[in-house]
Amino acid sequence: MKASVKIGTRGSKLALWQANWVKSALKKKFPNQAVEVIAIRTLGDKILDAPLTEVGGKGLFVKEIEQALLDRSIDIAVHSMKDMPADIPQGLFMGAIPQREIPTDVLISRSGLRFHELPRGAIIGTSSLRRAAQLKHARPDIAIMPLRGNLDTRLRKLETENMDAIVLAAAGIKRLNYTSRITEHLNEAMMLPAVGQGALCIEIRRKDPEIQSLVTELDHAATRLIIQGERAFLSRLEGGCQIPIAGYGKIKNNTYILDGMVADIDGKTLINGTLNGPAESAQSIGLTLAEQLLEKGADKILDRLKSVASENYES
After folding, report:
1. Are residues 13 and 74 in the same domain?
2. Which of 75, 83, 164, 259 is catalytic?
3. pTM for the whole structure
4. How far, CA to CA in Å, does 252 sit from each of 110, 245, 282?
5. Residue range 258-299, pLDDT digits in tens
6. Is 83 annotated as catalytic?
Protein backbone atom coordinates (compact mmCIF):
# COMPACT_ATOMS: atom_id res chain seq x y z
CA MET A 1 0.00 0.00 0.00
CA LYS A 2 1.34 3.43 -0.99
CA ALA A 3 1.91 5.95 1.80
CA SER A 4 -0.47 8.29 -0.03
CA VAL A 5 -2.18 8.15 -3.42
CA LYS A 6 -2.06 11.54 -5.15
CA ILE A 7 -4.97 12.53 -7.41
CA GLY A 8 -4.30 15.33 -9.91
CA THR A 9 -7.07 17.52 -11.27
CA ARG A 10 -7.90 20.98 -12.54
CA GLY A 11 -8.61 23.55 -9.86
CA SER A 12 -12.16 24.54 -10.80
CA LYS A 13 -14.96 23.86 -8.33
CA LEU A 14 -16.42 21.17 -10.60
CA ALA A 15 -13.05 19.49 -11.24
CA LEU A 16 -12.33 19.42 -7.50
CA TRP A 17 -15.78 17.95 -6.85
CA GLN A 18 -15.03 15.18 -9.34
CA ALA A 19 -11.60 14.45 -7.87
CA ASN A 20 -12.98 14.40 -4.35
CA TRP A 21 -15.72 12.04 -5.48
CA VAL A 22 -13.00 9.67 -6.72
CA LYS A 23 -11.12 10.13 -3.44
CA SER A 24 -14.25 9.24 -1.44
CA ALA A 25 -14.98 6.23 -3.63
CA LEU A 26 -11.43 4.94 -3.14
CA LYS A 27 -11.63 5.50 0.62
CA LYS A 28 -14.86 3.47 0.76
CA LYS A 29 -13.16 0.57 -1.01
CA PHE A 30 -9.81 0.96 0.78
CA PRO A 31 -10.41 2.75 4.12
CA ASN A 32 -6.79 2.43 5.25
CA GLN A 33 -5.35 4.01 2.10
CA ALA A 34 -4.35 7.67 2.40
CA VAL A 35 -5.53 9.71 -0.60
CA GLU A 36 -4.92 13.40 -1.37
CA VAL A 37 -6.12 15.74 -4.12
CA ILE A 38 -3.66 18.06 -5.89
CA ALA A 39 -4.95 20.94 -8.04
CA ILE A 40 -3.00 21.63 -11.24
CA ARG A 41 -3.56 24.75 -13.33
CA THR A 42 -3.76 23.89 -17.02
CA LEU A 43 -3.18 26.13 -20.02
CA GLY A 44 -6.89 25.95 -20.78
CA ASP A 45 -7.58 27.47 -17.35
CA LYS A 46 -5.10 30.28 -17.95
CA ILE A 47 -6.35 31.36 -21.39
CA LEU A 48 -9.89 32.63 -20.86
CA ASP A 49 -10.06 35.44 -23.43
CA ALA A 50 -10.07 33.27 -26.58
CA PRO A 51 -12.16 30.38 -27.89
CA LEU A 52 -10.63 26.93 -27.46
CA THR A 53 -10.79 26.52 -31.24
CA GLU A 54 -8.18 29.27 -31.56
CA VAL A 55 -5.75 28.14 -28.86
CA GLY A 56 -5.38 24.41 -29.34
CA GLY A 57 -8.61 22.63 -28.47
CA LYS A 58 -9.83 20.70 -25.46
CA GLY A 59 -6.48 18.94 -24.91
CA LEU A 60 -5.41 22.16 -23.19
CA PHE A 61 -7.33 21.00 -20.12
CA VAL A 62 -5.41 17.74 -19.69
CA LYS A 63 -1.81 18.15 -20.92
CA GLU A 64 -0.24 19.49 -17.72
CA ILE A 65 -2.08 16.91 -15.64
CA GLU A 66 -0.94 14.08 -17.92
CA GLN A 67 2.63 15.35 -17.70
CA ALA A 68 2.43 15.28 -13.90
CA LEU A 69 1.24 11.68 -14.19
CA LEU A 70 4.16 10.78 -16.45
CA ASP A 71 6.57 12.59 -14.09
CA ARG A 72 5.15 10.56 -11.16
CA SER A 73 4.28 13.69 -9.17
CA ILE A 74 0.72 12.33 -9.12
CA ASP A 75 -0.59 8.76 -9.29
CA ILE A 76 -4.06 9.30 -10.74
CA ALA A 77 -5.50 11.96 -13.05
CA VAL A 78 -9.23 12.73 -12.98
CA HIS A 79 -10.69 14.41 -16.05
CA SER A 80 -14.09 15.12 -17.52
CA MET A 81 -14.27 12.52 -20.29
CA LYS A 82 -15.45 15.08 -22.83
CA ASP A 83 -12.15 16.96 -22.33
CA MET A 84 -10.11 13.93 -23.40
CA PRO A 85 -8.52 14.13 -26.87
CA ALA A 86 -8.90 11.11 -29.12
CA ASP A 87 -5.25 10.14 -28.58
CA ILE A 88 -3.80 9.38 -25.14
CA PRO A 89 -0.04 9.79 -24.52
CA GLN A 90 2.12 6.69 -24.65
CA GLY A 91 2.54 5.21 -21.20
CA LEU A 92 -0.92 6.28 -19.98
CA PHE A 93 -4.38 4.73 -20.25
CA MET A 94 -7.91 4.97 -18.88
CA GLY A 95 -7.66 2.88 -15.75
CA ALA A 96 -11.32 3.31 -14.84
CA ILE A 97 -14.50 4.90 -16.15
CA PRO A 98 -17.07 5.20 -13.34
CA GLN A 99 -20.81 5.06 -13.95
CA ARG A 100 -21.92 7.96 -16.09
CA GLU A 101 -23.97 10.87 -14.80
CA ILE A 102 -26.78 12.36 -16.94
CA PRO A 103 -25.10 13.15 -20.32
CA THR A 104 -27.44 15.75 -21.81
CA ASP A 105 -27.42 19.57 -21.90
CA VAL A 106 -29.64 22.08 -20.16
CA LEU A 107 -30.82 25.58 -20.96
CA ILE A 108 -30.74 28.23 -18.25
CA SER A 109 -32.58 31.37 -19.29
CA ARG A 110 -32.64 34.73 -17.56
CA SER A 111 -36.40 35.16 -18.02
CA GLY A 112 -37.42 31.55 -17.35
CA LEU A 113 -38.45 31.04 -20.97
CA ARG A 114 -37.78 27.69 -22.66
CA PHE A 115 -35.70 27.51 -25.84
CA HIS A 116 -38.59 27.72 -28.32
CA GLU A 117 -40.21 30.50 -26.25
CA LEU A 118 -37.20 32.83 -26.38
CA PRO A 119 -37.78 35.99 -28.45
CA ARG A 120 -36.61 36.23 -32.03
CA GLY A 121 -32.91 37.15 -32.14
CA ALA A 122 -32.31 35.92 -28.60
CA ILE A 123 -28.67 35.76 -27.50
CA ILE A 124 -27.49 32.38 -26.18
CA GLY A 125 -24.10 31.94 -24.55
CA THR A 126 -21.88 28.96 -25.39
CA SER A 127 -18.34 28.42 -26.66
CA SER A 128 -19.14 24.89 -27.84
CA LEU A 129 -19.35 24.65 -31.63
CA ARG A 130 -21.40 21.47 -31.17
CA ARG A 131 -24.00 23.29 -29.09
CA ALA A 132 -23.97 26.40 -31.27
CA ALA A 133 -24.48 24.43 -34.50
CA GLN A 134 -27.43 22.48 -33.11
CA LEU A 135 -29.01 25.59 -31.58
CA LYS A 136 -28.70 27.45 -34.89
CA HIS A 137 -30.06 24.44 -36.78
CA ALA A 138 -33.15 24.42 -34.57
CA ARG A 139 -33.54 28.20 -34.64
CA PRO A 140 -31.56 30.12 -37.29
CA ASP A 141 -32.78 33.44 -35.83
CA ILE A 142 -30.82 33.20 -32.57
CA ALA A 143 -27.39 34.75 -31.96
CA ILE A 144 -24.52 32.94 -30.25
CA MET A 145 -22.25 34.71 -27.78
CA PRO A 146 -18.92 33.09 -26.81
CA LEU A 147 -18.93 31.93 -23.18
CA ARG A 148 -15.79 30.69 -21.40
CA GLY A 149 -14.97 30.17 -17.73
CA ASN A 150 -15.93 27.80 -14.96
CA LEU A 151 -19.55 27.02 -14.17
CA ASP A 152 -19.97 29.83 -11.60
CA THR A 153 -18.46 32.32 -14.04
CA ARG A 154 -20.83 31.27 -16.81
CA LEU A 155 -23.86 31.56 -14.56
CA ARG A 156 -22.74 35.03 -13.50
CA LYS A 157 -22.18 36.13 -17.11
CA LEU A 158 -25.78 35.21 -17.91
CA GLU A 159 -26.81 38.07 -15.62
CA THR A 160 -24.07 40.57 -16.50
CA GLU A 161 -23.46 40.25 -20.25
CA ASN A 162 -26.89 40.76 -21.77
CA MET A 163 -27.54 37.14 -22.69
CA ASP A 164 -31.01 35.65 -22.80
CA ALA A 165 -29.85 32.12 -21.98
CA ILE A 166 -26.85 29.83 -21.70
CA VAL A 167 -26.43 26.12 -22.40
CA LEU A 168 -24.43 23.90 -20.01
CA ALA A 169 -23.88 20.21 -19.32
CA ALA A 170 -26.52 18.80 -17.02
CA ALA A 171 -23.94 16.69 -15.15
CA GLY A 172 -21.96 19.68 -13.87
CA ILE A 173 -25.13 21.49 -12.82
CA LYS A 174 -26.28 18.43 -10.88
CA ARG A 175 -22.89 17.77 -9.27
CA LEU A 176 -22.65 21.33 -7.94
CA ASN A 177 -26.29 21.44 -6.78
CA TYR A 178 -27.49 24.10 -9.23
CA THR A 179 -30.45 22.08 -10.53
CA SER A 180 -32.87 24.78 -9.33
CA ARG A 181 -31.39 27.07 -12.02
CA ILE A 182 -32.37 24.75 -14.90
CA THR A 183 -35.05 26.14 -17.19
CA GLU A 184 -35.18 23.20 -19.59
CA HIS A 185 -33.52 19.86 -20.22
CA LEU A 186 -32.68 19.80 -23.94
CA ASN A 187 -33.61 16.41 -25.36
CA GLU A 188 -31.09 14.49 -27.44
CA ALA A 189 -33.25 14.77 -30.57
CA MET A 190 -32.50 18.51 -30.64
CA MET A 191 -29.18 18.66 -28.77
CA LEU A 192 -27.03 15.54 -29.08
CA PRO A 193 -24.39 15.48 -26.30
CA ALA A 194 -20.64 15.64 -26.69
CA VAL A 195 -18.70 12.39 -26.80
CA GLY A 196 -18.08 11.33 -23.20
CA GLN A 197 -20.24 14.05 -21.65
CA GLY A 198 -21.28 13.23 -18.10
CA ALA A 199 -18.57 10.59 -17.65
CA LEU A 200 -15.29 10.76 -15.75
CA CYS A 201 -11.93 9.49 -16.95
CA ILE A 202 -9.57 8.10 -14.31
CA GLU A 203 -6.24 8.08 -16.11
CA ILE A 204 -3.21 6.19 -14.77
CA ARG A 205 0.22 5.03 -15.89
CA ARG A 206 0.69 1.74 -17.67
CA LYS A 207 2.78 -0.76 -15.74
CA ASP A 208 1.58 0.57 -12.39
CA PRO A 209 -0.23 -2.50 -11.02
CA GLU A 210 -0.63 -1.12 -7.51
CA ILE A 211 -2.61 1.92 -8.67
CA GLN A 212 -4.43 -0.10 -11.31
CA SER A 213 -5.68 -2.54 -8.67
CA LEU A 214 -7.15 0.40 -6.74
CA VAL A 215 -8.92 2.24 -9.56
CA THR A 216 -10.23 -0.92 -11.24
CA GLU A 217 -12.71 -1.11 -8.36
CA LEU A 218 -14.33 2.11 -9.65
CA ASP A 219 -14.80 0.94 -13.23
CA HIS A 220 -18.35 0.55 -14.56
CA ALA A 221 -18.36 -2.03 -17.35
CA ALA A 222 -21.43 -0.76 -19.23
CA THR A 223 -20.23 2.86 -19.14
CA ARG A 224 -16.81 1.79 -20.42
CA LEU A 225 -18.39 0.02 -23.40
CA ILE A 226 -20.58 3.04 -24.16
CA ILE A 227 -17.64 5.45 -24.01
CA GLN A 228 -15.43 3.18 -26.12
CA GLY A 229 -18.04 3.28 -28.88
CA GLU A 230 -18.40 7.06 -28.70
CA ARG A 231 -14.65 7.63 -28.72
CA ALA A 232 -14.14 5.24 -31.64
CA PHE A 233 -16.67 7.35 -33.55
CA LEU A 234 -14.81 10.55 -32.59
CA SER A 235 -11.40 9.10 -33.38
CA ARG A 236 -12.42 7.98 -36.88
CA LEU A 237 -13.70 11.47 -37.61
CA GLU A 238 -10.48 12.94 -36.16
CA GLY A 239 -12.69 15.29 -34.19
CA GLY A 240 -11.64 18.12 -31.94
CA CYS A 241 -12.99 21.44 -30.70
CA GLN A 242 -12.73 22.95 -34.19
CA ILE A 243 -15.55 20.77 -35.55
CA PRO A 244 -19.14 20.35 -34.31
CA ILE A 245 -19.30 16.61 -33.59
CA ALA A 246 -21.67 14.84 -31.21
CA GLY A 247 -21.97 11.20 -30.22
CA TYR A 248 -24.19 9.54 -27.66
CA GLY A 249 -24.35 5.81 -26.94
CA LYS A 250 -26.54 3.75 -24.67
CA ILE A 251 -27.12 0.07 -23.94
CA LYS A 252 -30.62 -1.41 -23.85
CA ASN A 253 -31.19 -5.15 -23.46
CA ASN A 254 -27.52 -5.81 -24.35
CA THR A 255 -27.91 -3.80 -27.58
CA TYR A 256 -25.60 -0.83 -28.13
CA ILE A 257 -27.33 2.14 -29.75
CA LEU A 258 -25.16 5.00 -30.99
CA ASP A 259 -26.38 8.34 -32.34
CA GLY A 260 -23.83 10.52 -34.10
CA MET A 261 -23.76 13.94 -35.74
CA VAL A 262 -21.44 16.19 -37.73
CA ALA A 263 -22.53 19.75 -38.51
CA ASP A 264 -21.31 22.89 -40.20
CA ILE A 265 -20.55 25.72 -37.77
CA ASP A 266 -23.57 27.75 -38.88
CA GLY A 267 -25.89 24.78 -38.33
CA LYS A 268 -27.29 24.91 -41.86
CA THR A 269 -25.90 21.49 -42.73
CA LEU A 270 -26.33 18.75 -40.13
CA ILE A 271 -25.59 15.12 -40.91
CA ASN A 272 -26.65 12.49 -38.41
CA GLY A 273 -27.24 8.79 -38.11
CA THR A 274 -27.95 5.92 -35.74
CA LEU A 275 -26.48 2.44 -35.59
CA ASN A 276 -26.99 -0.44 -33.20
CA GLY A 277 -25.64 -3.92 -32.55
CA PRO A 278 -24.34 -6.20 -29.80
CA ALA A 279 -23.01 -4.27 -26.80
CA GLU A 280 -19.64 -6.02 -27.00
CA SER A 281 -19.22 -4.56 -30.51
CA ALA A 282 -19.46 -0.93 -29.35
CA GLN A 283 -16.12 0.13 -30.83
CA SER A 284 -16.79 -1.34 -34.25
CA ILE A 285 -20.27 0.24 -34.21
CA GLY A 286 -18.65 3.62 -33.51
CA LEU A 287 -16.24 3.21 -36.42
CA THR A 288 -18.97 2.02 -38.78
CA LEU A 289 -21.29 4.90 -37.91
CA ALA A 290 -18.46 7.36 -38.54
CA GLU A 291 -17.91 5.80 -41.98
CA GLN A 292 -21.63 6.08 -42.74
CA LEU A 293 -21.67 9.79 -41.89
CA LEU A 294 -18.57 10.37 -44.00
CA GLU A 295 -20.31 8.71 -46.93
CA LYS A 296 -23.37 10.93 -46.35
CA GLY A 297 -21.25 14.08 -46.75
CA ALA A 298 -19.58 14.62 -43.39
CA ASP A 299 -16.22 14.27 -45.15
CA LYS A 300 -16.86 17.53 -47.02
CA ILE A 301 -17.74 19.36 -43.80
CA LEU A 302 -14.65 18.01 -42.05
CA ASP A 303 -12.31 18.90 -44.93
CA ARG A 304 -13.73 22.43 -45.12
CA LEU A 305 -13.53 23.12 -41.39
CA LYS A 306 -10.04 21.62 -41.04
CA SER A 307 -8.89 23.81 -43.91
CA VAL A 308 -10.29 26.92 -42.22
CA ALA A 309 -8.71 25.92 -38.89
CA SER A 310 -5.35 25.42 -40.60
CA GLU A 311 -5.57 28.81 -42.32
CA ASN A 312 -6.42 30.53 -39.03
CA TYR A 313 -3.51 28.80 -37.30
CA GLU A 314 -1.04 29.84 -40.01
CA SER A 315 -2.26 33.44 -40.03
Report:
1. yes
2. 83
3. 0.90
4. 37, 23, 12
5. 999 999 999 999 999 999 999 999 999 999 999 999 999 999
6. yes
